[in-house]
Amino acid sequence: MAVKKSQLYSKLWAACDELRGGMDASQYKDYVLVMLFIKYLSDKKKSGDKSLLIELPKGCSFDDLVLLKGSKDIGEKMNIILERIAEANDLEGVVNNADFADETKLGKGKDLVDTVSGLIGVFQDEDLDFSNNRAADDDLIGDAYEYLMKNFATQSGKSKGQFYTPAEVSRVMAKVIGIGDDKRKMISIYDPTCGSGSLLLRAAAEAKGAVAIQGQEKDVATIGMARMSMVVHGVDDPDLRHGDTLTDPLHKRNDRELCTFDYVVANPPFSVKSWLKGASEEDPFGRWGHGEGVAPVPPPKCGDYAFLLHILKSMKPSGHAAVILPHGVLFRGNAEAEIRKYIVRRHWIKGIIGLPPNLFFGTGIPACIIVLDKEGAAASKGIFMIDAKDGFAKDGAKNRLRESDVRRIVDVWNAGENVPHYAQFVKYADIEANDYNLNIPRYVAPADKEVKQDLSAHLNGGIPAKEAARYPACLFKPLRKGFVKLALPQEDIVEELREGDEMAGQIAAFESDCAGWLGDFTRKALGLKRGAEPKKIVAEWGEGLLRTRKSAEPPAPAGSPAASCAVLHQPACGLVSPYALYEHLMNYWAETMQDDCYIICRDGWQARLVKPKKKSYGWRDLQCDLLPPEVVAKERCASTYENYLTRIEQLEGLESQFAELTEGLGEDDETPEEAEKLKKSISLFKKDLREDDKRFAWEIERIYEKLTEDGIKDLVIHHKWAEELHRRFDAELDRTLSQIATEVKALAERYDRPLASLEADVAALREKVMAHLAEMGVGAKGTKQ
Hints:
alpha/beta, 9-stranded mixed β-sheet, 25 helices, 47% helix, 10% strand
């Protein structure tokens, strides 16, 4: 079977297990990434690939490393091989930065030999073969490298994970500066703080034509990672240089003029202190200074604006850029306020996107993307601001942008239209009136999340009708003028929403839209064949899903739960946001469908059943990635499958009975006779079940042998993919209805106990207390009678 990406990632992470203990992730990443790099080069050379510009000297392939396993001097010989590769390709400090003879990290004597041999052994796995990608657009090795980089950043800790920019943020940056719309045959992209190169690679991936990649990085180990990352992503000729961009910019035409680029992307370190050391306040490149028409000098103890001014100076007159900076740059005063005024008055800021907190590995503080545009500066009328701080999911100790969050940001940016509580185009006059303060909440009003309290309802009971109007009317009935009460028990609300007449139209429209999209999805899936590009296919499916709500109800009133899910001028999103459905599609794609599609695009519609090597096995021991045996069992052997599941339930029931009969018995206690009989029955039941299991396996094997291509397509598309997507879409509807029910219950409970009821309870309790006091002979004032 072809290796799945999830399986590949697990195997690569196993390489890290060989090294954990002696060092942290910021150190062992060097060993693992170098080994992956050598394995990739060796596989490509072995396959006859002549496109690589990297030379692999004789005796320096991965096969040569395998021959070193178990050798007493394995560390020294590994270092010699890496040194030869570095010398042959001008990669000093890149492939030879990991010392395989370092006893402080890898152990001494036999421990070092075993550790290094074990690391080599992990990469001998036949699934780690990078000689060919699985489909035209499948960057298997690049994705593997990206996976490792992300995990290394996660494990390296706050101070050592800054080399990596989350892929989702990188994609947003690349899309909002319009690289994908540029039709030129060649463009240039630059990152002045390129780290591991992830931002540059994401930006380059958007380009339609050729790309000239340039970057600079202060940390020597990190620039090595960037160079290796470029090679494994198929970029053999990047211009990456080592040095401090602020004090010694290396991409320059001469000593007075910087090189300029079509596009610049950057995620510089936040608020660098003492950045001015080694630099001049009168910058020779004109980035900052004290003269007329030059930007003021950024504060010596905070380098955020120094990086921003460097980026502006590195942009062509027609250039575009996106840079990640902390929110403080939007509103801090003194010198930074003057620089902000200088930049805004020149109309260089096209937009600002506020991001969720805790996205980045180097810091937990909130950040923003500042989008720069020199080409459109003359015609600019203001700055477009997006407040995307609430769109994220928890991912371990960090937050991350979901696929739907990325898509929503990009869609709103491209539309350029105001969205309540999310996006606002701000005219320069308004910015000037706010003294050039660009803090997003000044212009994008946050949604009012304060719980409203109605004094009359608290005093007299009932739910204010104006608050109830946000929800389906069928849930309420009149109480008095201006007030209502629940029309049914709280536990029946979800059922009424699901089955009642009032919501029937919206639910029917939702189900019709989903069915229509699934029909289109299955028709397109039937056309999948060898050589197709899965990433383009899922992009088309996603586009269709986001536009599928054309037949829904008219837009809901502002402030209603239905209206709250609208993002753009979607033709009425009804109950469920199209972005929620998009998230389900993309999640299922990442979990299952992308591997399936790559198998199809490489091998065609083939269902290769893998049988276990042992002689006796059951149907659940059979494996097939594209068409799991369970799908075949459910659809082609339904009665046998249902009977099997019933017998499993019966077995679980018997085992539960046995556990109850023997609960609390010690080792020396005699087992009750009833329990002994049940134990024998369970043993016989299991024996019969194993025989059924073997017969079922034989039956399923025969079905696989007779499957046609059309049969495989039907089972995979309709009964594996479409059924699962339909289940997830329906679950999203249930989640939405449950959320409405939860809000209605909270509203009802808020006013459930009016003042008169509370006073009556207090009076009743007072009487009880007084009665108890009287029984004890204590008077009202606490004195004995």
